Amino acid sequence: MTSTIPPAAVRGPLPPSDIELTFEQTVPRSLAHRRQIGEVFVTDSAQSGDDDFHLAFEIPRAHSHWSDRKAGFHDPFASVEAARQSIFVLLHRHVGVPVGLPFSLQRIALRVTHPQAYAEDGTSALRGRLHYRVAERRGKGSDVVSMVLEGVMEIGGLRAMTLSAVLAFMSQEDYDVFRAFQRGQKPVARARLTPVRRLGPELVGRENPRNVVIGVPENADASGASRFLLAADPRHPGFFDHEYDHIPGPLMVEAMRQAAVAAAHRAGATGTPHALTVGCEAAFLDFAEFEADLVQETEVGAPGADGRVPVTVVLRQFGSPVVEGRIDLLPDTAPHHPSTEQAHGV
Fold first, then answer.
1. pTM of this prediction?
2. pLDDT tens digit string along 151-162?
3. Which whole-number Å values give the CA distances from 336 to 122, 257, 258, 277, 329, in the listed order?
4. Domains of the chain, CATH where assigned
């Protein structure tokens, strides 16, 4: 099994910004598409020129999901959630896209360029700045059709992450017709969900069982699994921030991460399940339905010269791929040593 996703297409470093951004309060929750104020991470935003946007974020130190990890490093996926919210903010506040206009994330690619940026001192929140540039755009305001964003994240003065995202937009009417047609092509009415036994949190780098989103069939042996099932909890505040007619993308990406962590540890590619997630590529090929099993298939690759372990993950439903991608892991011992970054040039 091989990924069809090409490498992240970020076109090099973006120019530094001297724009002042504050960390005094969050933006309105409607702009960030969050149900609760405490789930909003974006604190400020500004625009420079037609296509450059600057945003600030802070992750709560005791967040129920993103703080659920081994001490020593902040979770890079917490800053990815901040980057996701930042897209909503720049679209609604600066680009003129109305709140409520349906759009979908078709592709994401991110790479942690400086793992030490996520080192935790035990008292400070994860705080950073993000610079997005619109690389491609079709349409404007409420008439926007598609958009490609490229970004660079800075944390603690370090260039922590590069990102790219491809977005597609449509009217509510077009979305409703499209979804009805899509569901009509699938055997949704005959689908049955397999009872799932969630993995232990220690197998996926978590501590709270509520934050485990994958499992195996109840009668299966999880010890050698390379195929997992989604275990969705629609009451989870981190993944169900509003009503959905499909399985949320962030939940599927977290399922990819957990499947990769469990599979890599089982294969002996990481010493513990507490590997740092330092890369993610995902192409969203279809909407995933709640009524049927969503299967994660994994294949662990050989570590690269920089020590990163690639894990190809494909999510399938009704036998067809819904998401294809890859998660890159850095064994938890590697980023603890500053010399590792120098040796590997990250």
1. 0.89
2. 999 999 999 999
3. 15, 21, 21, 14, 14
4. 1-170 (3.10.129.10), 175-346 (3.10.129.10)
